[in-house]
Amino acid sequence: MIVNIQDMKQILLILFFFSYEISLFAQQKKDSTANILSDSLTIHQLDEVIVIGNPSTNYLKENKALGSLDSYLERSKSINMIRRGAYAWEPMLNGMSTERSILTIDGMKIFHACTDKMDPITSYVENTNLSLAKIKEGQSGSEYGGTIAGSIDLIRRKTGFKQEKKLTGSAFAGFESNNKQQIYGATLNYSSPQFFTDIDFTYRNAKNYQSGYKSNQSNTILYSQFTKYNISAITGFKINDKQVIEASLIYDKATDVGYPALPMDVSLARALITSLQYTYKNPLKNISLWETKIYYNTITHVMDDSHRPIVPIRMDMPGWSKTHGFYSTLAGNYTIHSFKATLSGYLNNSLAEMTMHPNNPNEKDMFMLTWPDINTLYTGLNVEDNISLNEHLQLLIQGGVGIHNNKIESELGLNSLRLFYPDLTPQKTRILKNISTQLSYHHNNFLYQLGIGYGDRAPSISEGYGFYLLNVNDNFDYIGNPNLNNEQSINVTFSSTYNINKFTAIAKINYFYMIDYIIGKPKNGIPPMNITANGIKIYEQLNSASIINTSVQFKYKPFDYWTFITDMSYRYGQGAENTILPLIQPFNYRLEAKFEKKSFFIDASLNGSSKNRNSIEFGETQKSPYAIANLALSKKFNINNQHLIVKTGVENLFNTYYITFDDWFGIPSMGRNIYVNLIYKF
Length: 682
Description:
Number of domains: 1
Shape: globular
Low-confidence stretches: 1-45
CATH superfamily: TonB-dependent receptor, beta-barrel domain
Distance between the termini: 58 Å
Mean pLDDT: 90
Radius of gyration: 25 Å
CATH architecture: Beta Barrel
Number of strands: 32
CATH topology: Maltoporin, Chain A
Number of helices: 4
Strand content: over 45%
Largest sheet: 22 strands, antiparallel, barrel
């Protein structure tokens, strides 16, 4: 890896400080995977937890209670969001795209149905049906499959069983000035000793958004509108004091979704996500929990360009994804050991096609399969053991193995790929492996953690079997390569936490060294399918690539009502053959001041970024530094044991025109946005 002097100075500067990794210290002790820094004898694995506000919790401290899930995930110093418009941002974990991470909802694997990744699974849930997001880094996130970057698990909200029968709920409405977004919804929660249910509904409708002010330029970002409906339900039934059955459903539908950074929009994005879960507490001696879930989900995604006035050729690009899956987890304790074992598996089918309609009516339509009806079958076993060596020292050991099989079901798709790979067989089986260890030392006000891991992943469907997929950012058509090796990674993580009275400082750095790094490379002599494309890229493998992630936070509460937070982060990515890795975050910072007294809350923040280290090879341009000011206020009114929460705020207070490194195709971010949220809780 080649690092220039200026970049090295930035890295050393950040490492000099303590850095922020966790969004929350105070999680319930019964959750063995939550972040905990306490004086107890047990030191828990350091995972990041983002608490997500919803109408059944205290909204007072949330700046924008009815904002999107994307805005919550952006708060993590481990996550960046790729923006292709105002809807369905793609989460990047540790500077890596979604191919290198595991995304789940309550442990359920869900695969997007769009070849352009316009529908990450985060787009199929809402704040109203989520309680938190658990983020695990590197091989600690391999519980449900092979990963390089780690995992993000979105945990649904559940009221749970209560000793007394109780019915609660909320109604909410919101408005945002910039894109005239309207938000309406309601939740209903019922609990009793033997039964509970949670139901919620959210509706969003937004027009085109406006960028910040720039002279001699229109600030209306065309094709950035969207409409979205989301319904969620969870029901639990207690068989006895030890056994519980839960059923859940998510139905999400988005229509008329514009993507200004792409040549096509989305007429329909629809998801049906269902599951049935069985939980048995203390089934055996030393076994505290046995949890088993079966699930099914189906995604339909339809891209079209019918609303674009001028295109070289009209195209329809529908895609479908169906997943059947399960997991079964055993957790327990024995002497100094706290252990967990998870057996999981899924069968996914992904199919996508493209039909091109020439402008000349005398010419015939052209049809191809962009994903050739691929079945992916995975089964894996993952185990971990937390060993409490003494009151200050804990060792975590984790490992797993999985069998991953791809099969091309379409004869047309198989023959299409054989144009490039004549000897291609319809099936390929891979063995995925992971192992990691983490040592934690806690003494007085300090917590130190050092971890190292090794793991690999299989190529994604697009990387292995994609057929003429246009990447607008670099304007190349991409073709998959079924002969790719597993991508491997060695990652090292170190964190240091200091917590005393009213001051907290947390520092973290992790380093990923990847072998057989998968990336698209130009191929001469093959014409592109899209008329305006610069050429063809075929997925190949670099000998190696490296990514360094660092982050920093200081949190200080000098007075009862005031809290001050400073956090910073920086990433660096370099591959073999002098390849600058794309979409790597530059130096980012956030300064924040909070005031809270009884039922009143105010938050003022300034966040910004330095210029990015752009990868010209992948169509990136250098983005200018920027700084954005935000202000939020909240007030809670008590009305006969019920509550009305009023929230208002301004994002991008000074209407700054700016483009972030992860704004796809250089589309400018949103300008000044005034919002109002009303939440009525009963």
